[in-house]
Write a structure and sequence with these properties.
globular, about 80% helix
C-alpha cells in the first residue's frame, strides 16, 4: 500500500508541476508533509536542500530521496517512476499537438497564461522555506508565524547571499558554499 501511495503522490506532483522543479515544491510539500505525513517540514526542507545540491531536476531528486527515506531503494524507484511518468506522457502528447498546431493564436495565448502561474508557484515555495529558515518553524499563513522565534543570523545570511547574487552576479555554488561555511561557524560556536 505504501508503494501505491508513493507512486500516486509523486504521479500527482509530476502531473501538476507545470514550470519545472521549483514550481513543484509546494505540490511536493502538500503531498509529502501535509496529506500523507511521510516527512515533517524540517525533514522536507533537508531533502529539498539535498535535492538542490545533487545533479538533476529537483522534483525527481526529491522523489528519489523521499522514496529512499520511506522504503529504501524500491521506494526510491517507485517514487521516481511516479514523478516522471506523467511528464513522459504529457510531453509526447504535447509535442505531437504543438508541432501540428504551433502557429495558432490560442496555443500562444495559453502558453502566455501559464507564465504568471509558474512564477506564483515558485514564489510560494520560496516564501515557505524563507519562513522556516527565519522563524525556525513552518507556518501555513502569516497570522500563525511565531515572531519570537526570529533568527537574526539567518536573516543576515539571506540578505548577504541575496546581495552577492544580485549585485555582483556571483556563482550560486560559491554563495551556497560560503553561506554554509558561515552557518557552520555561526551555529556551532
Amino acid at each position: 500500500m505504501i508503494y501505491l501511495q508513493l507512486f500516486w503522490s509523486f504521479f500527482q506532483v509530476g502531473l501538476f508541476s507545470i514550470g519545472g522543479g521549483y514550481a513543484a515544491l509546494p505540490l511536493i510539500q502538500k503531498q509529502i508533509v501535509e496529506i500523507n505525513h511521510f516527512l515533517t517540514m524540517n525533514e522536507f526542507v533537508d531533502i529539498i536542500t539535498i535535492s538542490q545540491m545533487t545533479p538533476g531536476p529537483i522534483g525527481i531528486n526529491a522523489a528519489t530521496f523521499v522514496g529512499m527515506n520511506i522504503k529504501g531503494i524500491p521506494g526510491a524507484i517507485v517514487a521516481t517512476v511516479g514523478c516522471v511518468t506523467p511528464s513522459c506522457i504529457i510531453v509526447l502528447t504535447l509535442a505531437y499537438f504543438y508541432y501540428k498546431y504551433r502557429n495558432l493564436w490560442a496555443v500562444q495565448g495559453a502558453l502566455s497564461g501559464l507564465r504568471p502561474t509558474v512564477v506564483s508557484l515558485i514564489a510560494s515555495a520560496g516564501i515557505s522555506i524563507l519562513i522556516l529558515a527565519l522563524f525556525n518553524g513552518y507556518s501555513d499563513s502569516w497570522q500563525n508565524i511565531d515572531f519570537s522565534q526570529f533568527d537574526p543570523w539567518a536573516f543576515i545570511l539571506f540578505v548577504i547571499g541575496f546581495i552577492i547574487l544580485r549585485k555582483f552576479k556571483a556563482n550560486p555554488i560559491y554563495v551556497m558554499l560560503g553561506c554554509g561555511a558561515a552557518g557552520l561557524i555561526i551555529y556551532t560556536i
